[in-house]
Amino acid sequence: MSMLQQKMSCPDNSAEQFEQDGFFIARGLLSPADVETIRETFMQQAANGPVEGLSETHRPVGNASRGYDKSDPLSFYPRMMQPHQHPELAVGPVAMKYMLHPSLHPLLKAFIGQEPVAVQSMFYFKPPGARGQDLHQDNFYLRVKPDTCMAAWIAIDDADEENGGMVVVPGTQNMEIACPEPSDRSRFFTDHHIEPPPGMKPVATNLKAGDVLFFNGSLIHGSYENSSKDRFRRSLICHYVPDNSSELSQWYTTRLRFDGTTISIAPAQGGGPCGNLQEIAKPH
Ligand SMILES: O=C(O)CCC(=O)C(=O)O
After folding, report:
1. Which of 7, 32, 133, 277 is most buried, with most CB under 10 Å away?
2. Fold exhibited by the domain 3-46+69-280
3. In this structure, which residue's CA is closest to atom 7 in ligand 1?
4. Is the pLDDT of residue 230 over 90?
5. Which residues' Cβ are closer than 6 Å to ligand 1?
């Protein structure tokens, strides 16, 4: 794609906004038909509950790992991890198609400043009553060097404060990666919390189905409970790294450019100020 085509396919001030806030919302990037395909395919896949090898049925609790309580809405609808790695299932080709969808490419390239390389996909169902994901920074987990990772969070339903839409802390993209504190597990299904710096606060992103929220891997973000009675808050979430990345956590095994070619990136080395990252920074 030429620079002119790339500029024309990005909203005018998207790169400036992204640079300033650490995130950007592209409204209506996917069509209603695309959204319906994704929603229906994942709902059918989940019709009988968790799928072996795809759904995340256990979460770390301290040093152990525990299944969801039967009364937890997430026990029937846990998130699905790396669906694009399952060509044998209906969700596989769909996740792959949208992880590498041409509509995402110009924005990712403009924000990353290089060719984006896809490394992860996830699908969250977040049914009514489900807990959220506490505030965190993605690059704590992906451990990309020398730069950082990037998320494309695709709204499959309208996602707002009532049903546990995403919150972001603008400006925190310039922070170092911080060591997490324990989360409040009565509100969040994940076990890590990052406190925003004094004076910085989470703000709600109110998304419509088909909108895509792009955010920098250092930005503090997360979501609260789905307090609605009957509204799912589904999302397809994909992560990307810059083409010149020299390190990436060993837990992420995909490295796919949008043209289908692959690159190699060495596994991230060493621990750090937060301890043995090989264990505590498993995919979140
Ligand atoms: O969708 C959510 O509730 C949280 C997702 C998230 O924080 C992430 O993918 O990093």
Report:
1. 133
2. Jelly Rolls (2.60.120)
3. 222
4. yes
5. 124, 132-133, 138, 151, 166, 221-223, 235, 237
